[in-house]
Write a structure and sequence with these properties.
single chain; alpha/beta; 4-stranded mixed sheet; 4-stranded antiparallel sheet; 7 helices
Length: 179
Amino acid sequence: DALRRTASIQSDSEAISSIALQLTDGIDNDYDKVLAIHDWICTYMYYDLDSLSAEESPPYFASDIVKTQKAVCLGFATLMASLCRSIDIPCNVVSGYALGVGDDTAWTEETAVTDEQNHAWNEVYVDGRWIIVDTTWDCTNKFENGEMVRGSGVSHLYFDANLQFFSANHKITEYSKRR
């Protein structure tokens, strides 16, 4: 399943695979390929704050996301999965609950057991292990009030984050089977 094409994870799209091949040209190991894809997403994409209060949903199909350069977390995770899968690197979209998305800043009895989903990220299989990658939280670019605002640069806090660090503010509720 982590290599499968779906309607939203368009890993067989010529445009998506072309981007992935360009980003990874000359890189000989999957870990560094995933890092190159992560860094491109975090540089190229903008977190769409305007869509949070809009009536229509932001795009979740990889080809649409590339065209608009903006998405929310599920779009970021879908794009990451599409790019990785297009070059045969297994990648899952993970849905869960993250602190700091709303007013929650610390785990409570309620949030610790919630099945609510408010965030999405990826797990990517490289070097014989699954690594956690959250491009949304590593991207500092924002789309707000109709304008693209370039952030302070790419963070790597949530690239190959260890489980203890990641669990301080993320909780898995489902491995998405995106259609």
